[in-house]
């Protein structure tokens, strides 16, 4: 008798593709797809650690293709925010799906980490800060 494996799709993954802003190659855009949770936390944390080791502290997370962010996932952003800011950079979020934005708003994270409707808006915020 064949067992029905209800857990087959339970493994949640995260894919992060890195690109540079055209206007400034020190601004890195992390295009995320999938789930940011306890299973993928270390992967996301390691991506940030590599950027920091290469003196890259201006980070934009493009969350357009994120399905879900758990509390540990929010910790990836918040736990690295201070390091980025101490080194003259920042972590910004862009293009959140509605269900992710709902949690961001409910937790009042706008008081801690900036969100932008588009990646270009987030890039421009970094550029304006450099000018000012």
Question: What are the SSEs and their pairings?
Answer:
Blueprint (H helix, E strand, L loop, with lengths): L13 E8 L2 E13 L4 H13 L4 E12 L1 H16 L3 E5 L3 H9 L8 E2 L2 H13 L1
Word description of this protein:
- The chain is an alpha/beta fold and 132 residues long.
- The chain has one domain: Transcription Regulator spoIIAA (2-Layer Sandwich), CATH 3.30.750.24.
- It is built from 4 helices and 5 strands.
- It has helices at residues 41-53, 71-86, 98-106, 119-131; strands at 14-21, 24-36, 58-69, 90-94, 115-116.
- A 5-stranded mixed sheet has the order 1-2-3-4-5, sandwiched between helices.
- Helix 3 links the parallel strand 4 (90-94) and strand 5.
- Helix 1 (41-53) runs parallel beside helix 2 (71-86).
- The chain is globular, with a radius of gyration of 16 Å.
- Mean pLDDT is 91; it is low at 1-10.
The CATH class label is Alpha Beta
The count of domains is 1
Q: Looking at this structure, what is the CATH superfamily?
A: STAS domain
Query: How many individual helices?
Result: 4
Oligomer: single chain
Task: Tally the beta strands.
Answer: 5
| Secondary-structure element pattern, one letter each | EEHEHEHEH
Main beta sheet: 5 strands, mixed
Shape: globular
Secondary-structure content class: alpha/beta
> Between the first and last Cα atoms, what is the distance in angstroms?
69 Å
What value does the Rg take, in angstroms? 16 Å
Walk across the major sheet and give the strand order. 1-2-3-4-5
CATH topology term: Transcription Regulator spoIIAA
Strand fraction band? 25-35%
């Amino acid at each position: 008798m064949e067992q029905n494996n209800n857990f087959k799709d339970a493994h949640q993954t995260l894919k992060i593709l890195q690109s540079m802003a055209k206007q400034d190659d020190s601004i890195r855009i992390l295009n995320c797809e999938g789930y940011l949770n306890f299973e993928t936390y270390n992967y996301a944390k390691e991506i940030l650690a590599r950027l920091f080791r290469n003196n890259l502290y201006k980070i934009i997370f493009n969350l357009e293709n994120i399905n879900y962010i758990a509390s540990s996932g929010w910790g990836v952003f918040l736990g690295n925010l201070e390091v980025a800011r101490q080194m003259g950079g920042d972590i910004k979020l862009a293009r959140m799906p509605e269900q992710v934005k709902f949690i961001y708003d409910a937790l009042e994270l706008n008081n801690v980490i900036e969100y932008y409707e588009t990646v270009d808006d987030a890039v421009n915020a970094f550029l304006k800060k450099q000018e000012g």
